[in-house]
TrEMBL record:
It catalyses: O-phospho-L-serine + 2-oxoglutarate = 3-phosphooxypyruvate + L-glutamate; 4-(phosphooxy)-L-threonine + 2-oxoglutarate = (R)-3-hydroxy-2-oxo-4-phosphooxybutanoate + L-glutamate. GO terms for cellular component: cytoplasm. It holds the Pfam family Aminotran_5. Pathway: Amino-acid biosynthesis; L-serine biosynthesis; L-serine from 3-phospho-D-glycerate: step 2/3. One of its GO terms (molecular function) is pyridoxal phosphate binding. PANTHER family: PHOSPHOSERINE AMINOTRANSFERASE. It comes from Trematosphaeria pertusa. Gene3D superfamilies: Aspartate Aminotransferase, domain 1, Type I PLP-dependent aspartate aminotransferase-like (Major domain). Its cofactor is pyridoxal 5'-phosphate. GO terms for biological process: L-serine biosynthetic process. This is phosphoserine transaminase. Transmembrane segments: none annotated.
Amino acid sequence: MVNRSDVHYFGAGPAPLPTAVLERAAQVLLNYKDKGIGLCEISHRSPDANEILADAKHALSTLLDIPDDYEVLFLQSGGSGEFSATVYNLVAIWVEKKRAAIAGEVGDNQEEVLKRMHKAVDEELKLDYLVSGSWSLKASQEATRLVGAKHVNVALDARKSNGGKFGVIPPEDQWSLTPRASGGGPALVYYCDNETVDGVEFPAFPHALEGDDAPLVCCDMSSNFISRKVDVRKYAVIFGGAQKNIGNTGIAIVILRKSLLPPHSTPASPDLLRALNLPVGPIVLDYPTIAKNNSLYNTLPIFDVWVAGQVMSGLVNAYGAKRIGGQEEVSNDKARLIYDTLDKYSHVYRVVPDKAVRSRMNICFRVHGGDADKEKAFLAGAEKKGLLGLKGHRSVGGIRASNYNAVSMDGAKALVAYLEDYAKSS
Ligand SMILES: Cc1ncc(COP(=O)(O)O)c(C=O)c1O
């Protein structure tokens, strides 16, 4: 039998979880708080479930210093569901804002309002996407599927600057963002902070998205959530699936600016959206509905929220006043160790993305120029040493070491030792 302590797992998600959390999870699955029933069996509307939800929110808010004017939502959507949710919700807000402005000009003449709305949607509705890797590409494709290509402005396609492959983030002056017209501008600007497949991470929040008239920024942080400090106020929506840094598969977490919720913002009515040939989203992705119901509009997997809460409170306890800054230091140190070793043996290893945008979370590299047999042998040798989950994503191949929070410094060092041994014997 192989024990957990015998291996270090570098899978990209689902990803490792702290052993102590899993041990407690095994207990609460059987018997939660000595009630004789397990956590998957209790009602999501029970006081216990509410407490679990509140604790998870509190831990996340503490870690990331989430301001009071932001809401935390838990959904079953996965990361991909949020590709759609951001579109449904922010397009509905854009449309209602536009309708109110037009109604202010033309008064109660519904026919005229609708006529002008058609024109406004036709000519002005834009959703901006910064495509820096496979996941933001998928998000932009989902937006296109929902609202049509003419409304989706791919303001950046990083492949165009890198011979058709992801791996760079070109300078911001080369992006073609929709202009911020007064009272206009895009319905959202979307980007993925860390591209899990391609190993590309935004080093910092883009300058081009800052300013008093900043657009509504939606950001996918699925694979670098709670791994570094984030200035939440710069974002309209931050989301991520839990299954990398936060917990087990099953929930996504959304951090949402409250001014996008009623009574501050009202989404367009389903009737108006239909009249304009725009999509009406499913109720389970409707942010106002989820927020109004404290994430309990429908059955929330409370066990998954419990795991996420345990992981996050573990970090709160571990790093104290440093909060997520403490984890950031550790994540950076582990990543630096691994990248330094890859660079040291550059005749054997080649890091795929450009140095300026290397991900601290998903370290993508090739062995011997991507020689298939040699990479296979590299992986087999790693497995023998208990270093698992290193195979690159099937769409790009190569090697990927995911350096999530639950990968220990010992794990990073064990990988480094193997990289050294392999390079020296090559
Ligand atoms: C950055 C990123 N976004 C979105 C997703 C999709 O998440 P899900 O599988 O939960 O839909 C993934 C999955 O790996 C991801 O890495």
